[in-house]
Amino acid sequence: MRFARPFVVCLLSLACCAAQAFDFKTVGARPVILYDGPSAKGAKLFIAPSGMPVEVLLSYGDWVKVRDAAGDMAWTEAKGLSSRRNVIVRAPSTRVRANPDETAPTLLIVDRNVLLELVDPEAGAWVRVRHRDGVSGYVRASDVWGI
Question: From 20's CA, which of 65, 111, 123, 142 has a CA 20 to 30 Å away?
Fold first, then answer.
C-alpha cells in the first residue's frame, strides 16, 4: 500500500500535464464530415469546411475526436486533417498590429469568426498571423481560438 500512493500521484501528475498539451489541426483541402462516433456508420453531425481549426482530443485508429471553436465535439477521419494551423478570431474588431505591442500601428481590423493563418505557433501574449489577403501581423492570443 505504501507504494500505491506515489504511483497514483505520479499518474495524476502525468494526466494533468497531458491535459494541458493542446493539439490543434486544420481541416485539409476538402471539407470533412463530423460523426457522433469513430465510424462512417455513425450519425453525421456536421460538415466542417476546409481551413477550419479543430482541437484533437483523442485518437482511435484512423479516427480522431475533435472539438471546434464552439466547444462541440465529434469524430472525423484523421486523414482529412492538416498540420497547417489556422485560428478563428473570437473577439469583435480585432486589430492585427505591425508588432506584438498594443501601441504598434494597426494593419487590419478583422471581425469575429474570421480565419487567420497561424504563422508562428509559439504562443505568448501575442501570436503572428496572416490574413488570406496577405497581410501579416500580430494579434493578442486571447482574441483568437486555436492555439
Answer: 111
How far is Cα 142 from Cα 135, in angstroms, rounded to an integer? 20
Cell reading at 95: 486589430
The structure's pTM equals: 0.80
Q: What's the DSSP call for residue 38?
A: S
In order, the DSSP letters of 87-140 are EEE-STTEEEESSSSTTSPEEEEE-TT-EEEES----SSEEEEE-TTS-EEEEE
**DSSP secondary-structure letter at 76?**
E
Hey, what long-range contacts does 41-47 have (CB within 8 A, 24 or more apart)?
Answer: 42/75, 45/72, 45/74, 46/72, 46/74
CA dist., res. 63 & res. 39, Å (int) = 8
How far the first Cα of the chain sits from its last, in Å, is: 41
Provide the residue-wise pLDDT of the chain in tens; the chain has 147 residues. 554 454 444 444 444 444 456 899 999 999 999 999 999 999 999 999 999 999 999 999 999 999 999 999 999 999 999 999 999 999 999 999 999 999 999 999 999 999 999 998 887 999 999 999 999 999 999 999 999
